[in-house]
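New here. Invent one.

***
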Amino acid sequence: MTGMILKTVSDLGLAVREARHRQKLTQKQLAQTLGTTQEWISQFETGRLENPSLGTVLKAFATLEIDLHPDSVPGSLRNDDLDTGDLALDEPSFLKGRRR
């Protein structure tokens, strides 16, 4: 999952599924580690879970060693003009203030 830009909940689920497969974990094994259910993992990975708990998502990323740090994204994939929504790689545009 190198260089993937995470913009949606579906993207987060895909990242978890790919990392889980790389580590040869089943959905049930990951669910037990996270304190959730296999059904939650399945729905999250397939983008069918509309409002996943941020805490559980972050715990999954930590457990699966998915790096969310912007410096882990190759420079050629970073684009300040790219609208990445709420899951921006850099500071969200609404926090940057007005540009002159």
Summary: The chain has a mean pLDDT of 78. The helical segments are 9-22, 27-34, 38-45, 54-63, 93-96. The chain has five helices and no strands. The two ends are 36 Å apart (CA to CA).
